Amino acid sequence: MTNAAPHTALTIAGSDSGGGAGVQADLRTFFAHGVHGLVALTAVTVQNSLGVQGFTEIPAEVVRAQIKAVASDMGVDAAKTGMLATAEIIHTVAGTLDEVHIGRGTDTPFVVDPVAASMTGHALLREEALEAIRTELFPRATLITPNLDEVRLLTGVEVTDGASQRQAAEALLEFGSAWVLVKGGHLYDAEDCVDLLTDGAETIELSGPRIATKNTHGGGDTMASAITSALANGADVPAAVSAAKRFIERCVAEAYPLGAGVGPVSPFWRLRG
Ligand SMILES: Nc1ncnc2c1ncn2[C@@H]1O[C@H](COP(=O)(O)OP(=O)(O)O)[C@@H](O)[C@H]1O
Ligand SMILES: Cc1ncc(COP(=O)(O)OP(=O)(O)O)c(N)n1
Question: CATH number of the domain that 240 lies in?
């Protein structure tokens, strides 16, 4: 008997030793969507619920080799990036994605989560690398998914309400991605969590209740990999983001305490049905 292979999604991201963010969050989320996860590891972080103690990056050529190995043999239905650590890795990833035909202008959707720092404020990207994300990855992206801290770093726009969220989304579109999702989780005083999705022609507000919990570690990675899973399974961008928003709400609602600090969001609810 030969079983049909599931769809595949590739994450190009760092490892979180605490298991709540990074490739661990991505693989948990791919699994919860019935998608086979492929990995190109970019960095190894030393972190737990209290924060990131440090990281070391993987040589750029090894990142390239991982992407080539899986793309040439197994095939990639959708890809995403998370922590990329250095400008050299970003440059290498951009060139390799072109070689294996992933990203804007190809049939394989590509999501860029422009991870710059952990929620505890520890840098996950060397300083000079932000410009490389803007110029080398955004033009190749089907969708970019910054949080409000990343929006400020990338555009200088301080989002405080719906109007500035729209202004930020327009500024981000100028960098060349097909779609932008400005996530609103960091507007802590707002009653609802509103994420704004736009391609310049169509703008969709995705709103949901703000769940009262401190355990939101890995939320951004989980959201981006839920979108990537839906894209791998054939959804278009608005449908993928809308499904991911409902998914992450449940993950936040079922987040659990682990360690003395911030616990992880939980994709396990999906396995319980
Ligand atoms: N307390 C919360 N309740 C419900 N949804 C949340 C909560 N915090 C964040 N989210 C959602 O989780 C996703 C990631 O949010 P955000 O915190 O903005 O990004 P990041 O995790 O990258 O910092 C978004 O879809 C956001 O709306
Ligand atoms: C290895 C690694 N990658 C990414 C992050 C940031 O993850 P995110 O989903 O934004 O979660 P928080 O850091 O906001 O909890 C990370 N910490 N480690």
Answer: 3.40.1190.20
